[in-house]
Each structure stands twice: as structure tokens, then as C-alpha cells.
Amino acid sequence: MRHERTGLLDDSQARKSSTALSLHWHESPLPLFGSGECTPPARFVHSEHRMPSPPVLSFFGRFRARPAVDTITPVRSFEDVILPPATRRMLDSALAQVHNHALIFGRWGLGERHSTGLGLAFNFAGPPGTGKTICAEAIAGALGKKLLSVNYAEVESMWAGETPKNVAALFRNAAEEDAVLFFDEADAIAARRSMATGSPYQRESNTTVNVLLRELEGFNGVVIFATNLAANFDPAFERRIRTHVRFEMPGAAERERIWRVQIHPMYTPLAEDVDFAALASQFAVSGGDIKNAVLKAAAAAAAEPGPNSAKQIHQRHFVVGMEEVVSARQVMQQSLFAAADTPPPPDAMLQAFQAAEHRYQRTATVSLGVAGMALVAALVALGVMIAR
Question: Is the pTM of this model over 0.85?
Fold first, then answer.
């Protein structure tokens, strides 16, 4: 954009630049879903992923902001992620819906009967480290499309009305590039709307969710939401999301396979005492936890004294690494208010109520006594005045 290269602009120039960018987004027709055109238009450059800013911000044009989306060319496939059978079946069903979209809404004529909701929205819900992000990339790769991962810090604006506009621009970008739009940690933007709209922030948040729902309804492409807190979603997303995929914790068999794929088959020096089956049986953790434990084990083995050629990763390194991961999770689950939140035993509660009642009775008695004395004093004073 011109004002990013030349520095300071006045308000009128900034508004013209912002308007030109907005018109440029509408310049080319949106490709149809499943058209297979993965190459963006030649005139569409990466810098145009940035959300238009208010004119005041043009004075800081020399500072380039992060793009609102990260364009990812998929390199990982479903072969790189190990999932429980139920989760894999749901993902296969989701892919089948994408591949059969043209048949259902084209040749079978359902597109003429249903003018909205023709896109495909998937919700990947499950604990951290269960493969949601990898599967989003794998779906984009299976479709031959790029993955546009949303940066919430760049989408959300301090200016009233800008955040909903930025959300709408995300869908325009995805349509122009024929890419898969990915909202990671989606509960941050798709949270439940508030009934209390007294503050500007609450009104802005509700408007953003409304715009997101409207864009999702009219988008003719693939959108993937990933979240650890699906219960925080606004209920209106339940109907607009075509398929909800639940990512469950891996079983012992899946965990053993995850342990093995974390190790390079040729270069990682493993000792003979390494037993991945025992590790999988001992620690019921997610794939992300296993990855962290492997990295910790490698760091511990590399830090031991001796020549590098003689260093190996032993079973004890993996065990200690996993114990550190589990210990870190327990630390994160601690609460400074746990003792205060623990309800006292019934006897203690009864004693507390009785003590409060006694204090109230004493206070009420003293107050009545003081009031009586004040009344007597007032009467005496009145009598004296009458006698005079």
C-alpha cells in the first residue's frame, strides 16, 4: 500500500488509500466452491492481507503490522498424525463431504433449493495436543488449497466498528485465494453473546459474533474452527457448523505409535533400553505432551558429559522428561484460592452462623439502648423548654 512506503499522509489521502484497498477486494469475482483454482490472482499480494486501519494510524505507516492471516502451504498430511479410530472416521466423513460438494449441490440440484449455507464449516474440539492444528493443515493439503490461519491480535481493533469489518475481510481473502480459513482457539472470537450491552466492549463483541455468523452462512468454502473450550461457543454456531469432530485422548496403542514417530529413524541415537510400549502404558498423555517429553529427553541426553558421538537417549531420559511434563501440568492446575474455595465442614458453618447471629443481637440491643437514651434526652430537653 502506498502509505506504508512514503510515511506521513494527511487524513484525506489515508481515506483514499483505505477505500482503494476495500474496492480492490471486490474487484475480482469470487471463485466457486471446489473450483480447484488454488493460485491467487496475480495482482493479489501478501501485504493486502492486512486489515485497513483508521486514518489516524496512517501517521505510523512506517511501522508495518503483522498480516491478519498467516498463509500456510500445507506440508503435513494425515500420515503425520495418529488419531483414535473414532476421530479418524469423523475426519474421513468430513473430507467426503468436501469431495462430494459439487455432486450434492450441483448435479443433485440442492444448491438451487438452498441459497445459503453452501459452505462447509468444521469444528475440531478436544484437549490440547490431540492433533487439531495438524489435521486442519492436512485437510487443506488433501484439497490442494492453502491454509489461512487467523491472527486475532491483528483482527481485533481498538476502534469501534473495525473488528467486524476485519472479520468480513477474512472471508473475502479466503474466497479470493480459494483457501481454507482456519480459526485456531476459536472460542476467543466465537464466544457467547452477552445479554448485558451496557459497555461499548460488550456491544462490539456481540456485533463481531453477529458478523461472523452472517459471513459463515454466506461463505462458499471451507472453514475450520479449533478449540479446547467448545462449551464457550455461542449456541448459534451449532447449526452453522456442518460437522463437529471430537478429538479424544489417544489410547495406549496410539501413544506407542506417537512415541515412535517423534524419533528420527536414522539420526536419533536411541539406547537399547528404550521401550516405547512401556512409556505408552505408564503415561496416559496427549501427543503434544509426548512431543515435549521427547524434546526434554533429547536435551537432557545432550547435556551429559562426554563426546557427542557417544551420547544416547536412554529410557530414563524419556521417563524424567515425561514426569517433568506431567508435573508442569499439575503446577498449571493449582489455584492460589484453592483453600479459600474449599467449603468448610457443616459444624463449622453452623458455628459461624450462630456467632453471626449473636453479634447481630448484641449490636441490635446496643442500638436500641442508645436510641432510647437519645429519646429520653430529647423529651427532657423539650420539657425544660416548655417550663421556661
Answer: no
Residue with cell 463449622: 348
DSSP 3-state of 305: coil
Distance CA 47, CA 282 (A): 49
3-state DSSP of 233-284: ECCCHHHHCCEEEECCCCCHHHHHHHHHHCCCCCCCCECCCCCHHHHHHHCC
One domain, residues 94 and 235: yes
CA contacts within 13 A on the Cβ side of 49: 21
For the chain, the domain total comes to 2
Write out pLDDT tens, residues 2-17. Answer: 343 333 334 444 444 4
Residues 6+ apart with CB under 8 A from 164: 204, 207, 208, 210, 211
- Strand 147-150 and strand 69-72: pairing? antiparallel
Domain endpoint, select from 213, 230, 246? 246
Say how many CA atoms lie within 13 Å of 269 toward its Cβ: 10
Say if residue 31's pLDDT is above 50: no
- Summarised one tens digit per residue, pLDDT across range 145-162 is 999 999 888 888 777 778
Exposed, middle or buried, 347 (CB in 10 Å: 0-12/13-18/19+)? exposed
Grid cell listed for 165? 469489518
> What are the cell numbers at 223?
472453514
Residue 306 lies in domain: 252-332
The answer to whether position 338 is within a domain reads: no
The CATH number given to whatever domain includes residue 318 is 1.10.8.60
Determine, yes or no, domain membership for 194.
yes
Burial class (CB in 10 A: 0-12, 13-18, 19+), 244: middle
- DSSP letter at 191 equals B
